[in-house]
Amino acid sequence: MNELIALPQYRLLEICGPEAQTYLQGQLTCDLNQLPVGSSTLCAHCDPKGKVGALLRLYHAREQCFYALVRADSAPHALAQLKKYAIFSKVEIRPLETEIAAAPTAKCTEINAEFYINLGAYSLLLNPQQAAAQNRSDEWDCWEIQQGYPLLSAELQNQFIPQALNLQALEQAISFRKGCYIGQETVARAQFRGANKRAMFTFTSSGGQCPSPGSELEIALENGWRKTGSVLSAICQGDTLWLQAVLNRWEGETPQFRLPEQQTALELYPLPYDL
Q1: Name one Pfam family in it (predicted).
Q2: 78 and 126: one domain?
Q3: What is the pLDDT of residue 16?
Q4: How far apart are CA 35 and CA 25, in angstroms?
Q5: What is the C-alpha separation between 39 and 60, in angstroms, rounded?
Q6: Does residue 137 sit within a domain?
Q7: Sign of torsion over alpha carbons 100, 105, 110, 114
Q8: Which residue among 123, 158, 191 closes a domain?
Q9: Torsion angle, CA of 131/136/141/146, rounded to 10 degrees?
Q10: End-of-domain residue from the set 191, 210, 225
Q11: What ranges in the chain are assigned the alpha helix state H?
């Protein structure tokens, strides 16, 4: 990706007000007290059972004002849940009509934008003043999969705890030292008592159709193939299928996995972080 690419698969929520930081501190898995102005982190908004209702990239825009990037199909649910208890705090949460794009960070000095969110090699840009390339959003999704960032669709909201999506290994996505937040008891138990046995893994395959989120994989056992796990996301980029799946962890040699309908063999793609 060497140019500015439009990202219509994302929406932007604004959370501002005198008590915005305190309110979000009791809602999200990250520690907002450790998120300086101008920085961002992945995080989750969970239900009371600790299941992830929305994955957010939270950007600290200025004092007591935050932007949350969320997948478009998850945005209505995320907005409704974030606003659920906002009536009791001095905070306003609203969706913004904002153009969101991505570009190599090295080229961002050539592009005027309202905000830049640095992700390392690439940056997100809000309301860029330069026309962005359309119909290439799959390239960005593919890049996110390669970075090990989970892509959570609306179909799979409230099904996984944050650790099953590897959030404990990503940026400042989960704080185990902050105070209470929605779902905190389940998240802490999974971390300190070993209650979580699942993780997100990335696979590739040559050819094959993209499976739907929530569909199953198959694992090779001594007596044949057995269905297992759940597809989180899948992108067909050129002749290559990129796939994320939540599976039970294994020890020792990596098992063989395949897609059931086409019996397409899957190859494990290494995550860029340790679990």
Answers
A1: YgfZ_barrel
A2: yes
A3: 98
A4: 11
A5: 6
A6: yes
A7: positive
A8: 191
A9: -100
A10: 191
A11: 20-25, 75-82, 137-146, 184-192
